[in-house]
Amino acid sequence: MDMQNFESYRQIGVPELVFKYLHREGVSHVFGLPGGYIYPFLKLLRGQSAEGIQLIISRHEEGAAFMADGYARVTGKLGVVFTTAGPGATNALTGVACAHKDHSPLLLISGCASTASLGLGAWQESSNAGVNTTEVFRHATAFSEFVSNVENFHIQFGKALKIVHSTPNRAAHLCVPLDVSNGVIQKADISASPLHSGGNLFQLRADSKIAGEAFQMLLDALNPVIYLGNGARQALQDPHFISNFLEFLGRHSIPVMTSPKAKGIFPGSHPLSLGVFGLSGNRTSEEFLAQIKPDALMVIGSSLNEWSSGRWSELLHCHKMIHVDINNEVPGLVYRTDLEIQAEAKSFLQQLIELSQATDLSADTVVRIEKRGSDLAALKNTTPKFNNIHDMAADSSPIKPQRLMAELDKFAHGKAINFFIDMGNCTGFFNHYTQIDPPNRVFAPYGFSSMGWANAAVIGGKVGDPERINIAISGDGAFLMNGVEVQSAARHRIGAVYLILFDNHYGTVHHGEMSVMNDLSKMDDNYYCLGEPDLTMFAKSLGAEAYYIEKPEEIIPSLEKACERADSEKKPQVIVFKIDHKEKAPFGGRYNLVKPSK
Predict the structure, then answer these.
(1) Which H or E run includes 227?
(2) In the chain, what's the furthest Cα-to-Cα distance?
(3) How far apart (Å, rounded) are the C-alpha atoms in residues 293 and 360?
(4) Degrees (nearest 5) of the Cα angle 318, 233, 96?
(5) How many helices (H) and strands (E) does the chain have?
(6) Distance, CA of 501 to CA of 484 (rounded, Å)
């Protein structure tokens, strides 16, 4: 061990050690709900003795985990959650699992009764004598351990941090009994430099021979295409790098499509953009694969799961497939792959750029490049990017969700917004009907697809990136699940903005069942009806400014007003849009999933 990279502490309390490390990581806020079993941590946070770190108190532990996830996604730093024992920990389970599945670096520290009380029926028992929360979280994180004694804490803490900051990032859990968190460590060594740089694996480059083979496959192809997943997000946050990447694409006329989760990392308005491919993807990407039939497909940073593959679409079966991912278990898992490459996205793309710069293009290659450029332009000129384009300009009331997204797209142009998209019909409408360009960013919980996520994640996003507008887009059903976190934002004076699509139904299930039964005449059936809750009054009661919008011409003025007030008044803003409940989200064949097999 190189002790130059570590600092030694003697006679240091467990909470002091935790907050010293988090401060070194650049963590400004942690999230949680108070409870007696985490009192030693709360004591420092409340007394402002936690290295300047502030606690955002949520209204439910799941919300705290969603907030920490949102914070981690916008900052790239560690998201930290504190909960009490038993139900406090299990309440956070969905949020922690959500972060883990989407590779957010998140650490949950849950409390526990003192070790001397375990097995005696202690309150909120979290051992095998009650509900063993350590074991519960082993199935939802990459690391879950019970800290059995004070001197062992810094070792387990260090293991958890190393795993959280591995590549890809993951979630971890430590169950800390009260006597341990109250204890004093006699001697502890902690890293003197932040771990969130990711270590050596993060810069993993492909073997130069394999990178050359991949480049040659693109060069020799008549119609290559690159499919970017969320694993390429960090690479394309560098403006200088994306400029070089665009130059590479332009030189070779290689079009790009993104996964739903990667929406916005590549400029949707660029001539070489095919938009999103996958569930609720754009027509241009589907038609390109169907009509032009690319002979070389390079996938970078996508697992090709149900969302990103469009329910494992046959369209992705290509003559030559190259799959690049930092996780060597991903390439070849779903589709037959000709070249599997383990590499970090930015490093690999830089290799392609350098190979291109060192390559003189033959006259025949230039002719091929020019032809595919003109073929792509012709396809985009004759293929609408969106379904039901006429609805994007509809003046009807209730508002067509397609029109709402078109207006939101206009509003976002030229701004720097973090969008947090919930799960439900809002996911499909936003994914399909908006065209997002950087520096706007889009985050959504596609890994675990948890409803209600955005309502809390946007709070963590605003805390972590306060200079940007931070907007949550949620359905009414999801808002009823945990929109109560709006009160957390109000209590802490956090200017998050909420756009609620109100159709008074659990719309995705409602539309799915009507589609499967092939009986759209029952769209007014009220079985999944929400009962007409007054969401504006609900939001106001939680301390937010709230607006009810029914007319399309009111959309942009309401967005402008809400975003301005969110920052000037440091107060959450909730806009409830009354939308047409008969409009189905563009999920395509996903509705057929529930059909009985013949």
Answers:
(1) strand 224-228
(2) 81
(3) 26
(4) 105
(5) 22, 20
(6) 16
State which CATH number among 3.30.70.1270, 3.30.365.10, 3.40.50.1220, 3.40.1710.10 fits the domain covering 204-382: 3.40.50.1220
The fourth-level CATH superfamily of domain 3-199 is: Thiamin diphosphate (ThDP)-binding fold, Pyr/PP domains (3.40.50.970)
What would the mean pLDDT of 347-366 be, rounded to a whole number?
Answer: 97
Mean pLDDT, range 429-437, rounded to an integer: 97
CA 416 to each of CA 93, 264, 413, 437, 441: distance values in angstroms, whole numbers, following the listed order:
32, 12, 9, 9, 8
Residue 276 three-state SS? strand
Tens digits of per-residue pLDDT, 383-423? 999 999 999 999 999 999 999 999 999 999 999 999 999 99
CA distances from 225 to 98, 215, 358 (A): 30, 12, 21
Classify domain 389-594 at the CATH class level.
Answer: alpha beta
Lowest average pLDDT, out of 169-178, 312-321, 393-402, goes to 312-321
Determine the Cα–Cα distance for residues 415 and 468; give it in Å rounded to an integer.
9
Verify cis geometry, omega within 30 degrees of 0, for the bond prior to 271: no
Q: How does pLDDT run across 486-541, given as a tens digit for each residue? A: 999 999 999 999 999 999 988 788 777 777 777 666 777 888 889 999 999 999 99
pTM for this model (two decimals) = 0.94
Q: Once rounded to an integer, what is the mean pLDDT over residues 151-163?
A: 93
- Are 440 and 412 in contact by the 8 Å Cβ rule? The answer is yes
HSE-CB at 306 with a 13 A cutoff on CA atoms is: 10
Tokens of 562: 């809400």
Show the tokens assigned to 156: 């387990």
Q: Any idea where the domains of the chain sit in the sequence?
A: 3-199, 204-382, 389-594
202 pLDDT higher than 60 = no
Nearest to 501 by CA among 433, 449, 569: 433
